[in-house]
Specification:
This protein has 579 residues and is an all-alpha fold. The protein contains 23 helices and no strands. The longest helix has 45 residues.
């Protein structure tokens, strides 16, 4: 394989990673770079989750019934569109950062992200048109977020010496990961005031970050004189995009089935996307200046770190969705909270997860600089997996303190792993490849999030489909619902029931509202059906069955990730392997 022009790989060290092309730079600059990139990562990841909790307010604000015919697609695309774009584009934008300048690409990301946030908050349409406006500008926002994600780790790696990278990248990664969960709380608070405030909150951070970045950040690495790998970029974007789009449609109902995995559109997307990625690998192995430098995977530290990151991301990515549904659909109503208030309180009750990140991430990043990464990454993933075992053993109406302890341990395990693993990946490549390596790392992480949602939702819906219809049919009939109406409601795809809980809407009203049967029942039966206990008690057993499948799978993936981490070997890239 040919070496890209203009890149020297002779300085790739063993223990410390790539040799720093700027060994002596003022201490102040590295802290400026860390602060600004951490702000950028926090802002980008907050927006990947803030919309999740805000969905009920957004749909009410644009006057769109999420359960109308075809409207579930709008809901899914608002959630998945952002993740899909960031997964597809970060490698390309990281490679462009190597060519035109990492700081230049990063600064442009702040501008694009901030402008898209303004456009989102001024949605001029209602109904389906309003949803399309939001989805389209979320895609643009994700483009800006991808520029930030793809280049922030490379900027930090350039700015910090090897002995401090674990600490610096740890702070940066914890800013990103905590942003995902702080976004849940912010979404609940802001959407209770005005759904547009969900997007307004980005403006002060975006304006401050943009001005600060353009005034303070500077290029500290040599640019590469390189040609853009157009065919590689196109086949990668098309292949990965087809796979992730197919997953989005795969968890939607199709032709009487509870999910769409048998749809010709989904199957052709999965097969076609896989074939395009195979073509991409062939192209990348033959071009002189590839966007995705496959030779990096000859380094065991780089390969094992990314494999562990992908598996951990799959295990972690769907966790917040499962916990939100568990809290909003069952636990909170049974503890006296209204369905409409459940989204806000779900975000608050998940704060121990964020606390675990914040405690373990920077500390383990700092310690890994002194004692090495393997014990922290592998130990963190083992703790992470054990927390899933604990969650699946919890009763459905758990004691909150047991739940809080388990999700805090989950967060601590993720924090122990994420910061040292990122440092190990970035330190294992030569300086000229840091932008591409950062993009590749982000692609595995973001793809894992998208895959996780598809996998975990599918497993949950399979578990519900086996048990929910009978429980729902008998429960509705016991409250006087006519047999034909009860049977029809029981046969509706479980995804509608799941999304009702996810959106903080009483599922019984969603199931029976269109038939008008609810209004014809005696007041007592109507009160029972729409109360806080009927549906949570009804769904508890089927939902717990699905959760056991989901958390068991997550625990297994976490242990696979721990195995990959344990096999990472000695950091550093052998220059002969890249020649």
């Amino acid at each position: 394989m040919s070496e890209p022009s203009g890149i020297s790989i002779a300085g790739a060290g063993s223990a410390g990673g790539a040799e720093d092309p700027h060994p002596e730079r003022p201490d102040r600059y590295k802290w400026v770079a860390l602060s600004n990139t951490s702000l950028g990562m926090f802002m980008a990841t907050v927006d990947s989750s803030i919309v999740i909790i805000s969905m009920p307010a957004i749909f009410r604000g644009i006057h769109l019934d999420p359960f109308g015919a075809g409207n579930i697609s709008y809901l899914l695309w608002m959630i998945m569109g952002y993740l899909l774009v960031t997964a597809v584009l970060v490698v390309t934008l990281g490679r462009l950062g190597d060519i035109v300048g990492r700081v230049k690409m990063y600064n442009l990301g702040f501008v694009v992200f901030t402008f898209a946030s303004v456009a989102l908050s001024f949605d001029p349409f209602l109904g389906g048109s309003g949803a399309v406006w939001l989805i389209a500008w979320r895609v643009v926002q994700a483009l800006g977020g991808s520029m930030l994600m793809a280049n922030s780790a490379a900027i930090i790696t350039d700015a910090f010496p090897a002995k401090q990278r674990g600490m610096a990248l740890g702070i940066n990664q914890i800013s990103a990961l905590s942003g995902q969960f702080i976004g849940l709380v912010l979404g609940g608070l802001l959407s209770a005031w005005d759904w547009r405030a969900v997007f307004w909150v980005n403006l002060p951070f975006g304006i401050l970050g943009t001005i600060w970045a353009y005034r303070s950040l500077r290029e500290t690495s040599a640019r590469q004189k390189s040609r853009i790998d157009w065919w590689g970029n196109l086949t990668f974007a098309a292949g990965l995009g087809a796979l992730l789009i197919s997953i989005t449609y795969g968890i939607q109902p199709y032709a009487g089935h509870s999910m769409g995995w048998t749809s010709p559109k989904v199957l052709s997307g999965l097969i076609g996307g896989t074939l395009l990625l195979v073509v991409f690998c062939v192209i990348e192995s033959r071009v002189a200046q590839p966007m995705f430098h496959l030779a990096l995977f000859r380094n065991r530290a780089f390969t094992a770190g990314n494999a562990a990151s992908l598996l951990a991301s799959v295990a972690r990515g769907g966790l917040q969705f499962m916990l939100i549904i568990w809290l909003q659909g069952i636990w909170l109503p049974l503890h006296g909270y209204d369905f409409a208030d459940a989204p806000l309180w779900a975000g608050i009750f998940l704060l121990p997860l964020t606390a675990g990140f914040l405690v373990a991430g920077p500390l383990c990043g700092y310690l890994s600089d002194r004692y090495g990464v393997r014990y922290f990454t592998t130990g963190g993933l083992v703790l992470f997996s054990l927390s899933f075992v604990g969650l699946l053993l919890l009763p459905i109406t758990f004691s909150y303190w047991a739940f809080a302890l388990l999700i805090m341990l989950n967060g601590m395990g993720s924090g122990m792993f994420s910061a040292p693993n990122t440092s190990a990946i970035m330190s294992s490549v030569p300086a000229g490849y840091r932008g591409a390596a950062s993009g590749m790392r982000s692609t595995f992480q973001n793809s894992g999030m998208s895959l996780s949602i598809g996998i975990f939702f599918s497993l949950l819906i399979v578990g519900l489909a086996n048990r929910l219809p009978n429980a729902l049919n008998s429960g509705l009939r016991a409250q006087g619902v006519p047999p034909d109406v009860a049977q029809h409601a029981a046969n509706l795809p479980p995804v509608s029931t799941v999304f009702s809980a996810f959106l903080g809407i009483n599922p019984v009203q969603t199931l029976l509202g269109p038939s008008g049967a609810l209004d014809k029942l005696p007041a007592h039966n109507r009160e029972v059906l729409t109360g806080k206990e009927f549906f949570p008690n009804l769904i508890s057993a089927p939902f717990h069955h699905g959760l056991v499948i989901v958390f068991g799978t997550a625990a297994a993936m976490g242990l696979l990730a721990a195995t990959a981490s344990l096999l990472r070997g000695t950091p550093g890239l052998d220059p002969d392997q890249l020649g």
